[in-house]
Amino acid sequence: MRNIEKTALVTGGSRGIGKAIAKDFSKTGIDVVITGRDKGRLKDTAEELKTHCKNAYWIDADLGTDLGLDRILSFLKEKNVEVDVLVNNAAIIHSSTSLIDFDMEIWQEVINVNLIGAVKITKLLLPGMVSRNYGKIINISSIGGRKGAAGRSAYRVTKAGLISFTESLAAEVKSSGIDVNCICPGSVVTEGYVEAFGQQSIENDHMMDPSEIAALCSFLVGDHSTAITGATIDAYGPSNPLFR
Predict the structure, then answer these.
(1) Higher pLDDT pick, 127 / 93
(2) N or C: which end of the chain has fewer CB within 10 A?
(3) Number of separate domains in the chain
C-alpha cells in the first residue's frame, strides 16, 4: 500500500468517459494529467479538476503519433511529474463501415490511437512505476472488444487487442508492484458515441452514464483492489445482452 499522494494520467481526458474518470480521481485527492487533441476542452476540464485536487495539468497531444508521445514525455519531465496511475482511454469511434468501403488511412489511424498509442504510452511510463515499485494501469476496452461485428472491424480489433495486452502486461509487472486491469463498458452516453452514430443512438433505455465507469476506475486504483490484476471487467449496465 502506498500512503502518499498519487498522480494519474488519463488519455482522452477532456470529455466523455475520460473526463468522468479524471473528475472522479480528483475528488479523491489524486492529481490528474489529462491529454487530448482539443486545447480548449482540455483547459476547461483542467480548471474544473483544480476545484478538487491540488494539481491538474493538460497536454494537447495526438497519441496516434510519436510527436504526440514526445510532447507528453517532455511535459512530464519539465513539470517533474511522476505518474503512478495510467488510464488508457483515448479512442477513435468510427461509424459502421464495411471493410471493402473502409478508407485504410482511417483504419490505420484507429489502430494507432486506440491500441498502438496505448501500448507506447504504457511503455513510456512503466520504468518510473517499476522504479517506485508501484503503479496502477487501466485499459478502457469495450463491449465491442468481446466480439466482432459487421462494420466495426477497426474499432473492435483495437478493443480486443487491449484485453490481451492487459493480460500479458499484468503477468509481466505484478512482481514490480503494478496492477493492470481492463474495463469493457457497454453503451455509454458520450460525445464521441453521438458523433459516430447520431443523436438517435442514445435515445433508448440501455445507455449508461460515464460516471458509472469512473466509479469502477476509482475502485481499481484504490488501495483495496490489490487482489485484482490481469482482470477484464464487463461493465455493460442495461446494455448487457442478458437483459435485452
Answers:
(1) 127
(2) N
(3) 1
